[in-house]
UniProtKB/TrEMBL annotation:
Gene: sdhB
Name listed for the protein in its UniProt record: succinate dehydrogenase
Keyword Oxidoreductase carried by entry: yes
Source species: Schinkia azotoformans LMG 9581
Entry's Gene Ontology BP terms: respiratory electron transport chain; tricarboxylic acid cycle
UniProt cross-references to InterPro entries, sorted A to Z: 2Fe-2S_ferredoxin-like_sf, 4Fe4S_Fe-S-bd, 4Fe4S_Fe_S_CS, Beta-grasp_dom_sf, Helical_ferredxn, SDH/FRD_Iron-Sulfur, Succ_DH/fum_Rdtase_Fe-S, Succ_DH/fum_Rdtase_N
Stated family: Belongs to the succinate dehydrogenase/fumarate reductase iron-sulfur protein family.
C-alpha cells in the first residue's frame, strides 16, 4: 500500500464573476477515504502536482453522514454527496466540479438560494401561529405516515435540481425538489389547510407544467425519494384544482 496515491482534478473559481479553471492534485492513499477526506488532505497541504502552493479549495460540508445535504457537488460527471462518495469506488483521476444549476460562489461552493426561494413560494411549512398549547394534532393513518416519511427524507441537497435538464439559467422552472415537498405538506392533516395555496403556486409560471418528465430526479436522489410519483399525484391534484377554480366550487 506504500506509495499508492489518489489523483484529483478540481474545478476552481476565485469569485462568482471570474472564469473557472482546473488544478490537479495528488495525495497519499488511505483505506476507506471519501471525497471530503481528500479535500481536507488538500486543504492541509494545498500543493498542486506541479509543486505550486495554491489557495485551498472551498466547499460546503456539515454532517459528514449524508443527512444535511450540504456537500453536494459533481463527482466524475454525476451530482452526488461527497461525504458518501468513496475513493475506492471512483475512477481516477477523480474530477470534482460545482453544481452548475446554481451560481458558484467559489470553487465547489454554490449559492442554493434558488431552491430555498422555491420552498418559500410553495409554502413548505405548516403555519400555526401563537405559543399557546394547541393540544395534540390530528393523527395520520399508519399507511399514509409511512409513505409521507419517505418524502420527509429530503435533505434539500440540490442533486435532483442539478440532474434535471429543465432547471437552468434560461428557465424559471421551480424544480423537482419543491414539488415533492408540496405533496408532503398537503398530505399532513394540519398542512392540508393550505393545500390550495400550494397547488396554485404550482399552477403558475415556472410550475408543474414546466416538468419535462425526464425522470433524472428520481434516479439521482441520494435518499431514493419517489419524486416522479409525487409529480404524477400533483398533476392530478392541480387538474382537480383547475376545475374547482373554473366552476367556482369550494368542494
Amino acid at each position: 500500500m506504500s506509495g499508492k496515491t489518489i489523483k484529483l482534478i478540481i474545478s476552481r473559481q476565485d469569485s462568482p464573476d471570474s472564469a473557472p479553471y482546473t488544478q490537479e492534485f495528488e495525495i497519499p492513499y488511505r483505506p476507506n477515504m471519501n471525497v471530503i477526506g481528500c479535500l481536507m488532505e488538500i486543504q492541509r497541504n494545498p500543493v498542486t502536482v506541479k509543486g505550486e502552493k495554491v489557495a485551498p479549495p472551498t466547499w460546503d460540508m456539515n454532517c459528514l453522514e449524508e443527512v444535511c445535504g450540504a456537500c453536494s457537488m459533481v463527482i466524475n460527471g454525476k451530482p452526488r454527496q461527497s461525504c458518501s462518495a468513496l475513493v475506492d469506488q471512483l475512477e481516477q483521476p477523480i474530477r470534482l466540479e460545482p453544481m452548475r444549476t446554481f451560481p458558484v460562489n467559489r470553487d465547489l461552493q454554490v449559492d442554493r438560494s434558488r431552491m430555498f426561494d422555491s420552498l418559500k413560494r410553495i409554502k413548505a411549512w405548516i403555519p400555526i401561529d401563537g405559543t399557546y398549547d394547541l393540544g395534540p394534532g390530528p393523527r395520520m393513518p399508519e399507511k399514509k405516515r409511512q409513505w409521507a416519511y419517505e418524502l420527509s427524507k429530503c435533505m434539500t441537497c440540490g442533486v435532483c435540481m442539478e440532474a434535471c435538464p429543465n432547471v437552468n439559467d434560461k428557465s424559471n422552472f421551480i424544480g423537482p425538489q419543491p414539488l415533492s415537498q408540496v405533496r408532503l405538506f398537503n398530505a399532513h392533516p394540519t398542512g392540508e389547510m393550505n393545500k390550495e395555496e400550494r397547488l396554485e403556486a404550482l399552477m403558475g409560471d415556472g410550475g408543474l407544467a414546466n416538468c419535462g418528465n425526464s425522470q433524472n430526479c428520481v434516479q439521482s436522489c441520494p435518499k431514493g425519494i419517489p419524486i416522479t410519483t409525487s409529480i404524477a399525484s400533483l398533476n392530478r391534484d392541480t387538474t382537480i384544482q383547475m376545475f374547482k377554480n373554473f366552476f367556482g366550487s369550494d368542494k
